[in-house]
Design the sequence.
């Protein structure tokens, strides 16, 4: 090859690309107003809703149940005649929890499937990559399935409505509960090293800054918690708050049991699905010395925070209703609280679609979101208006008992994500038959 | 999905037209006698024109996927030069895409006034430096040892984002917004189409550079290394230097591909650049055809579209949801095995053979 040709080519590359774009790559002009007076995806007899979920890949075993639950409720709603005579067409695309794929499937849903709204898009890194796009395109972004604080930002993302109690609110109530009921005891934090950990600590520290003796994090790629649990034991932490996904709650419990360390576990809602935990514990103990120990034994006494109805609760009308619906419309397996997650979301989506009235446009949906008086199925007041798109406003605390029962040890309390106080609430829910979410 | 097949057809006519033009000796010969950089730039311009045409008749979704084909192709082409050209197997190519992607997001976040072209040049520089560091360290390794060393890169590099959580955003990664079409073109191209065009402009130029290198002295040296290192050394080829240079070029192409990906998607997260990506790139390259840059095109089309087609296929067959979700992976595996069983040179090898079989009647 002649000397110098790479240089010439490089110069050609530089010149050509320079000529194509001279403004700064990061200088984005503000987009104009989006037109919400459209009813994309709505026909006389159907409404197309879309969602991105991890149906395959490493996150699928934990979260597949969300869309299964939601689908069962939408099928139930359709069987009752739909919403104002329209059937819900729920389209779920697999993103394998890879943000690059989320972007592709979201565009596919918006451009090809022409969805009316995005509902329950799952995951912080995944949904975080499409939130700008959805808002720019004027697609209502209802109830992302994640507790990140980012969803509640009406200035930048007016069309995004958070759903899950955010990590900071939940952690504040956990912190207060621990400081009141385990006062003076050493506390350890175990958290996932991303926004979950960051936001949770911001809440916990408001109440436990003096009690905390160990802050240990884990990476979701590394399934070994021996160093972390050893550190809790060394610092004599009597209470361990686990802001973790289910797999790591199970790992932490097993690791602790294997070294004979028995702290009081306090588990966030994201990791507190006992049915899922039992499955994981049984799986992890297989072919080990602990094979004969029932999974329940590890979970006995664990404190879990929650905001939705729970399947373990035999008295709760919504929990029983969900069990029935899933039995009839679901894909026939054990109903977990992860299913209930999707089912609760779906009921609320159906409810707001119903409130939006017969003449459904994106604007009327947004108006309905802002005006909706939420009355369940969640046990907490819900915020979707007036600049606060924070979703559920707090949590209640249950204690799990071996044998599959739970006891509510602290009723629903609400708070904010800043330094505000924590208050009890006298929120009243409507039972399933009275809540207006289908024809 | 009529567009990609349309594109393939368009592309496939390239070499075909060349062959058909051979009786027309003066024209054929004059094109042959062009110096190779010019000839490659001409091809590049034709490719870009084809993509632009395609963009104008299709929508935003196709634009996104065409862009994906573009940046994947550039990354695979770099790998092609490394693996097919110099015979070094890298399992860590995804790591260089990650370096490119993070460089792009960091540049856009911290230096938003830099134009995209400057960003791309910086990315080339950064990933070339990374390539020198890795290439120099691994130049003495070959075969499975090199593969093992590069494997560490693919496994380890995403961990850096956790270590420097504040700066690199941990597992949630970094999100950016990039400028779309310049004001005077806003009516002609949508933002996605514009970004696809920027991607393809970069890609065709990058490919022209790679093709020029491949057909020049450096390419010849690489191939001599691939075939027999000792013989090459005795013939005076500087073994270590050539290996490192091949590695650096591949890294730069990979980095550029990753940077373009971040530019189009507006996000860079560690979960997009796992070991799976590196293995997919290598598998796709083998599938597309390891001996030619054309293989990179088929590889990129496969990576982007096979999943979509397989999902559509599964849906149309109305199989169970579990089957539907997992079919694309199985489908890719089976197709890969079949192609390699019957055409060891991949899809491009198959097409070449098909072309050779069809040719005799036309030249009769």
Sequence:
């Amino acid at each position: 090859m002649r000397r110098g040709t790479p240089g010439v080519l490089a110069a050609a590359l530089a010149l050509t690309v320079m000529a194509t774009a001279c403004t700064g790559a990061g200088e984005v002009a503000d987009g104009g107003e989006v037109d919400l007076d459209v009813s994309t995806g709505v026909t006389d007899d159907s409404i197309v809703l879309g969602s991105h979920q991890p149906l395959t890949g490493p996150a699928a075993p934990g979260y597949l149940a969300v869309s299964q639950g939601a689908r069962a409720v939408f099928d139930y709603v359709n069987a009752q005649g739909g919403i104002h005579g329209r059937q819900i067409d729920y389209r779920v695309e697999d993103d394998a929890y890879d943000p690059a794929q989320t972007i592709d499937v979201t565009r596919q849903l918006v451009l090809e499937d022409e969805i009316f709204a995005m509902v329950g898009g799952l995951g912080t890194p995944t949904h975080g990559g499409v939130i700008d796009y959805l808002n720019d395109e004027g697609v209502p972004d209802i109830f992302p399935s994640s507790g990140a604080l980012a969803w509640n930002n009406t200035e930048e993302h007016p069309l995004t409505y958070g759903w899950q109690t955010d990590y900071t609110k939940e952690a504040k109530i956990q912190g207060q509960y621990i400081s009141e009921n385990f006062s003076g005891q050493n506390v350890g934090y175990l958290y996932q090293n991303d926004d979950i950990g960051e936001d949770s600590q911001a809440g916990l520290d408001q109440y436990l800054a003096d009690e905390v003796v160990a802050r240990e994090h884990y990476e979701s790629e590394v399934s070994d918690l021996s160093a972390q649990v050893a550190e809790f034991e060394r610092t004599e932490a009597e209470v361990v708050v686990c802001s973790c996904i289910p797999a790591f709650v199970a790992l932490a419990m097993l690791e602790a049991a294997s070294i004979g360390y028995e702290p009081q576990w306090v588990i966030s809602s994201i990791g507190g699905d006992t049915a899922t935990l039992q499955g994981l514990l049984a799986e992890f103990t297989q072919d080990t010395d602990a094979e004969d120990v029932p999974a329940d034994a590890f979970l006995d006494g664990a404190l879990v925070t929650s905001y939705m109805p729970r399947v373990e609760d035999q008295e709760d009308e919504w929990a029983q209703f969900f069990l029935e619906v899933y039995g009839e419309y679901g894909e026939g397996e054990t109903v977990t609280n992860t299913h209930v997650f999707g089912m609760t979301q779906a009921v609320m989506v159906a409810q707001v679609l119903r409130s939006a009235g017969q003449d459904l446009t994106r604007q009327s949906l947004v108006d309905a979101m802002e005006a909706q008086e939420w009355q369940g199925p969640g046990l907490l007041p819900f915020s979707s208006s007036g600049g606060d798109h924070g979703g559920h406003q707090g949590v209640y605390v249950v204690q799990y008992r071996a044998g599959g029962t739970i006891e509510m040890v602290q009723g629903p309390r609400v708070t904010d994500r800043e330094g505000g106080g924590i208050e009890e609430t006298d929120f009243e829910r409507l039972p399933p038959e009275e809540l207006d979410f289908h024809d | 999905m009529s567009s990609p097949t349309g594109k393939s057809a368009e592309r496939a006519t390239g070499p075909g037209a060349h062959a058909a033009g051979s009786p027309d000796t003066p024209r054929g010969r004059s094109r042959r006698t062009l110096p190779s950089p010019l000839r490659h730039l001409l091809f590049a311009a034709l490719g870009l024109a084809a993509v632009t045409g395609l963009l104008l008749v299709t929508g935003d979704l196709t634009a996104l996927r065409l862009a994906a084909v573009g940046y994947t192709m550039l990354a695979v082409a770099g790998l092609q030069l490394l693996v097919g050209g110099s015979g070094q197997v890298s399992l860590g190519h995804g790591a260089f895409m990650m370096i490119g992607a993070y460089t792009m997001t960091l540049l856009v976040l911290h230096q938003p006034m830099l134009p995209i072209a400057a960003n791309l040049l910086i990315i080339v520089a950064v990933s070339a430096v990374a390539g020198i560091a890795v290439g120099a360290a691994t130049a003495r390794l070959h075969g499975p040892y090199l593969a093992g060393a590069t494997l560490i890169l693919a496994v380890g590099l995403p961990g850096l984002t956790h270590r420097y959580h504040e700066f690199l955003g941990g597992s949630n990664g970094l999100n950016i917004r990039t400028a779309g079409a310049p004001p005077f073109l806003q009516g002609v191209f949508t933002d996605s189409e514009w970004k696809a065009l920027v991607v393809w402009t970069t890609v065709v130029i990058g490919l022209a550079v790679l093709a020029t290198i491949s057909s020049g002295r450096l390419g010849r040296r690489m191939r001599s290394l691939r075939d027999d290192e000792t013989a090459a050394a005795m013939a005076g080829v500087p073994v270590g230097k050539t290996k490192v240079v091949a590695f650096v070029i591949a890294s730069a192409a990979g980095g550029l591909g990753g940077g373009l990906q971040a530019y189009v998607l507006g996000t860079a997260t560690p979960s997009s650049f796992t070991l799976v990506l590196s293995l997919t790139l290598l598998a796709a390259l083998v599938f597309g055809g390891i001996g030619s840059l054309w293989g990179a095109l088929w590889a990129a089309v496969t990576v982007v579209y096979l999943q979509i087609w397989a999902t559509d296929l599964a849906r149309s067959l109305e199989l169970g949801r579990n089957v539907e979700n997992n079919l694309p992976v199985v489908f890719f595996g089976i197709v890969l095995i079949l192609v390699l069983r019957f055409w060891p040179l991949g899809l491009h090898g198959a097409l070449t053979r098909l072309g050779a079989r069809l040719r005799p009647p036309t030249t009769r």
The longest strand of chain A covers residues 405-414. The domain at 167-306 of chain A is CATH 3.40.50.2300 (Rossmann fold).
